Amino acid sequence: MTFKAEYIWIDGTKPTAKLRSKTRILADGAELPLWGFDGSSTNQAEGSSSDRVLKPVFTCPDPIRGGDNVLVLCEVLNTDMTPHVSNTRATLVEVAERFADQESWFGIEQEYTFFKEGRPLGFPQGGFPAPQGGYYCGVGADEVFGRDVVEKHLDLCLEAGLAISGINAEVMPGQWEFQVGPAGPVEVADHLWMARWLLYRVAEDFDIAATLDAKPVKGDWNGAGAHTNFSTKAMREGYDAIITACEALAENALEHIKNYGADVEDRLTGHHETARWDQFSYGVSDRGASVRIPWQVEADKKGYIEDRRPNANVDPYTVTRLMVDTCCTALEKAGQV
Ligand code: ADP
Ligand code: MN
Ligand code: MN
Ligand code: MN
């Protein structure tokens, strides 16, 4: 007997990478082998030297095909087994290992938007729906669009064993969110990429497209972000470490922003629950700040912070690497680990 392994990888498309996948049939009990693909079709190689290598890094049950079938997230290597330049996971693993003793946790809120026939789901042909106000966490056919896909996606993530922790309808019609975590930096990012793949895949069956575009509708409509909640052991135990992390993010604000997803300037305008991309601030309960300290965290004098700046289309391997690097370095320097 055989099983199907869906090899999934992140390509080299710029400015925002795409997910790719293909199926391999394997004999029951077989280990997952290295595999190859045509990098010249994925912006990862020239045609004259096109082979790239897929190395399995995270496997889970395939909840779409069921049975013994599996989904296999891969990293991309060159044929000499060095990481390909598009392989941001390899860089994260290095940083995560360096600061493993600080026990970083992440919870990422993935916002996204459904599209059908060229417009967001719930937008009438040639016009606009009622202005924002009633859609966030709404209920009813006049407020909520695409719930059948969202529920199916949630079930698939749970069946796959991903660390999904919730869902909600968002501020713009057709816009939704799911949360992954809390989990370590590499785990949260692997699970998020897998959950993204499942989202695109299940939406196919409903003839709907999901997009992580950061500002899918111009004008007075919320963009789509990927708020990144973060703590270390020291932050979960005391408030000084929370402030040290916020100050470290302030010092490195621009380096972070330029890696927080394509078109971040279009989304972080200072309106629609955002802080301007070129101004950094942090504050308690403040959804207009770059980084929010939840009220409960201030009350308890320990917990986590929420970086509200990352776009929906951010690479989770990159945002977790930057946050671990910036905050854990500062905590170490301050002697707060
Ligand atoms: P919001 O109020 O911003 O919409 P959500 O409930 O959508 O918040 O998301 C909060 C996220 O924070 C969840 O993914 C949760 O797992 C994560 N989280 C909770 N505690 C911690 C922690 N100590 N460290 C990191 N992430 C955390
Ligand atoms: Mn949320
Ligand atoms: Mn949200
Ligand atoms: Mn949030």
From TrEMBL:
Protein role: Catalyzes the ATP-dependent biosynthesis of glutamine from glutamate and ammonia.
NCBIfam families attached to this UniProt entry: gln_syn_GlnII
Domain GS catalytic as annotated: residue spans: 88-337
Lineage: superkingdom: Bacteria
Location of the GS beta-grasp domain: 3-81
Matching Pfam families: Gln-synt_C (PF00120), Gln-synt_N (PF03951)
Quaternary structure annotation from Swiss-Prot or TrEMBL: Homooctamer and homotetramer.
Catalytic activity: L-glutamate + NH4(+) + ATP = L-glutamine + ADP + phosphate + H(+)
Alphabetized UniProt keyword annotations: ATP-binding, Ligase, Nucleotide-binding
Gene3D superfamilies: Glutamine synthetase, N-terminal domain, Glutamine synthetase/guanido kinase, catalytic domain
EC id: 6.3.1.2
Protein's UniProt name: Glutamine synthetase
Keyword Zinc-finger (UniProt): no
Family (UniProt): Belongs to the glutamine synthetase family.
InterPro entries documented for this protein: Gln_syn_GlnII, Gln_synt_N, Gln_synt_N_sf, Gln_synth/guanido_kin_cat_dom, Gln_synth_cat_dom, Gln_synth_gly_rich_site, Gln_synth_N_conserv_site, Glutamine_Synthetase
Cross-referenced SMART domains: Gln-synt_C (SM01230)
